Amino acid sequence: MKEEGNYANRPSNTAFTQQRLPAWQPMLSAGVVIPGFLLIGLAFIGIGVGLLITSRSIQVLELDYTGTETSSPCYQCTMSNQSNCVCKLSFSIGTLFKGPVFFYYGLTNYFQNQRKYGVSKDFNQLIGDVSYFKSPSSDCQPYQRVNGKPIVPCGAIANSMFNDTFKLYQIINGKEELVPFDGKGIAWWTDYNIKYRNPDYTPLKNAFNDTEKPVFWTKPAYELDTSDASNNGFINQDFLVWMRRAALPNFRKLYRRITEGNYKDGLPAGNYSLEISYNYPVISFEGTKKVTFSNVSWMGGQNEFLGIAYLVIGSMCVVMSVVMLIVYAKFRFPEED
Amino acid sequence: IDCISHFTFFYYPKLYTPGQRNMYFNRTSFLLCIMQSCYNSLILFFIPYAALHDTVRQDGREIADYQSFAILLQTCLIIVVNAQIFLDTWYWTGINHFFLWGSMAAYFALTFTMNSNGLFFIFPTMFHVFVSGTGRNSLNQPNTWLIIFLTCLLCILPIVALRFIFIQTSPTINDKARKYKMRRDEIPAISLRPPATRRVSKRSSYAFSHSQGYGDLVTSQKFLDKKTPRRPLLFVKSLCKLAHMIIFGFFVTFTQL
């Protein structure tokens, strides 16, 4: 047995290699767990109460206008071979609907989260790269070409853009007064400024030579908003809102805000009439369409689930801490080796 | 890694019995692990779903869009898995701290980097998938953080409660040893004798060769017993981690697209 041979192969005797590093050794002791559960339970109950109160103070008004029942004002629009159908929905508001009021359109049974639908777009076109106007990506199939010409913007998401338009009137003394809508800044800032850009052509129409508009659209992309160049083309706010696809089958998307003129404090009580130009077909897949008026708070829109969930979990935590205290008291940890 | 040092195991060999008896790695514990993973997966999806299905952001825009939902679920998952590791680690050296807190910090740093504008401009083909702006836009909502808080605690608290109750009602021998060590601060240090280089028996080799010998040992076939795994505890924990990540990780990363 050579002493030097042994010492040459021996691992170094540092704290790191011999696993003697200084360490914190936590332990699930009663002094930590039981008060911890109690504190968490009380905090959750507090948060839950706050959330419920906030949620209850939010006003929401939802109107379905699919028109499946014969009594609905939009019933005649659901007949086939109807185009440019306009229907009017009347409703009344009892108390002041506090502003700023947000106006949404909602769809149900609409699966924007389906995989093939979701990848069916060409982001290169949408960033303004004109070379892809001539040859759209094959992800856009079957909305890639029509009549031998490439579609811009191609893909199923763009093709299925929501095209109902709305006008809101307040009935004052028998006369209809238009409620002004604000359509600026309804999409994400990053979508509007970074992710989607128009091609660098003036006029914009020249970039779209030898291309076709999507099959379902009535106007091409460069005519989405002819009155405002910063809302035309791919950076049109409604287009951006639609392209940001929803995760769930029943969703609502922001259409406009009501913040201007006489209505900046909200919608006063009274009778209203909503004029809808009904273009978007949803009956074929048993979906529904609705509009929603809502105001928002620090936690967003009205959603009682979070408040109730916090209350329930908080009370369960308090109950569990009591149970654990009983268990600890009864099964006192035996002091044996 | 246990807080009990190898000296303790040397002098209290009964502490090895859980490993030898496969107490930490058997079908029951694996099934429990799978059930816990399923419970976590259901919580991780349905709580955000119920909380987001009919609401909007603080500024009125849509909150339940595809990428925001995915980021929310991913953040919950990362926090839950890291918290599980936190609960399972009994011996926190500097390395443990670095990797645990470092992985959470790295997740947030990477999310904000991948979703930043700069990276989108440099690599528009690669990063269109990780849509620019999602991290910032969805994680600045108080609603989102409340959902994350609720989901993570709902996944972790049952585990803590069950573990506490089981430690109190039916402690394993390792739990008892840890408790003993916590109370006593340290097990009395007994100096290890230097390894014997010579036989300590006082009998001569002639007498030894005429003693009973090892015939009984060979004929009883005791030496044919299978070797037990050395570190079953770590293995089953890493298997649990793997089950967590497999059952949910594919779903969440796939939804990022």
Describe the structure.
Chain A: Keywords: Membrane, Transmembrane, Transmembrane helix. Chain A: Its main location: membrane. The complex is a heterodimer of chains A (337) and B (257). Chain A is of the alpha+beta class. Chain A has two domains: 63 residues; 190 residues, no CATH class. In chain A, 27% of the residues lie in helices and 19% in strands. Chain A has nine helices and twelve strands. In chain A, the strands form four sheets. In chain A, strands 1-12-4-9 form a four-stranded antiparallel beta sheet. Chain A has a four-stranded antiparallel beta sheet with strand order 2-11-7-8, with no helix packed on it. Chain A has a two-stranded antiparallel ribbon with strand order 3-10. In chain A, a hairpin with a 2-residue loop joins strand 5 and strand 6. The longest helix of chain A has 27 residues. The relative contact order of chain A is 0.24. The mean pLDDT of chain A is 87. With 257 residues, chain B is an all-alpha fold. Chain B has one domain. Chain B is 67% helix and 0% strand. Chain B has 13 helices and no strands. In chain B, helix 3 packs antiparallel against helix 4, helix 3 packs antiparallel against helix 9 and helix 4 packs antiparallel against helix 13. The longest helix of chain B has 28 residues. The radius of gyration of chain B is 27 Å and the shape is elongated. Chain B starts with 5 loop residues before the first helix and ends with a helix. About 5% of the residues of chain B have low confidence. At the A-B interface, helix 2, helix 7, strand 9 and helix 9 of A face helix 3, helix 4, helix 5, helix 6 and helix 9 of B.
